[in-house]
Amino acid sequence: MMKSILPNSRKHDISFHASGRIDISASIARKLSLVPGDVIGISENGGELYLYVKLRAGAYAGRHAGMVWPTTNGKGTFRACSRAITNAVLAKAGTTVRLRCPCGNEIEHDNTTYITIIYRCSL
């Protein structure tokens, strides 16, 4: 019986680390039209988690948790830091160290784009 050494070939779209670091893939950044200085948020509805842009760069003053900046690899990926967000997502997923998960479809609601986080399927 042959067995694949790579049973799941799907890559993760977002990573949550216990340190508070959040890594966002380029495809998700494009769907949300992220620019440096945007502030991300996580919303919950019916047991599902959604990623969205809470505040756009330039539309706020001061420092905010979840503000994104581009990574230095130059490939369109973004990073944010928020222990409050990561602790809430990790607790929801039932883990304490790291969660790498794919994202689902984008949903438009009240002129805001939400992207489903499939946290029950850690990669």
Overall description:
With 123 residues, the protein is mainly beta. It is built from 2 helices and 9 strands. It has helices spanning 26-32, 83-93, and strands spanning 14-17, 21-24, 39-45, 48-55, 68-70, 78-81, 98-101, 103-109, 112-117. A hairpin with a 2-residue loop joins strand 3 (39-45) and strand 4 (48-55). The longest helix has 11 residues, at 83-93. It is globular. The model has no long low-confidence stretch (mean pLDDT 89).
Globular, elongated, flat, extended or rod-shaped: what is the shape?
globular
Q: State the strand order across the main sheet.
A: 5-6-2-1-7
Number of strand elements: 9
Radius of gyration: 15 Å
Low-pLDDT residue spans: none
User: What is the count of DSSP helices, taking H or I runs of 4+ residues?
Assistant: 2
Strand content: 35-45%
Order of helices and strands: EEHEEEEHEEE
Percent of residues in helices comes to 10-25%
> What is the first-to-last residue Cα distance?
25 Å
Mean pLDDT: 89
Structural class: mainly beta
Largest sheet: 5 strands, antiparallel
Summarize, please.
The protein has 123 residues and is mostly beta strands.
Characteristic terms for this protein:
single chain; 123 residues; mainly beta; 5-stranded antiparallel β-sheet; 4-stranded antiparallel β-sheet; 2 helices; globular
Write the topology of this structure.
Layout: E1 14-17, E2 21-24, H1 26-32, E3 39-45, E4 48-55, E5 68-70, E6 78-81, H2 83-93, E7 98-101, E8 103-109, E9 112-117
Antiparallel strand pairs: 1-2, 1-7, 2-6, 3-4, 4-9, 5-6, 8-9
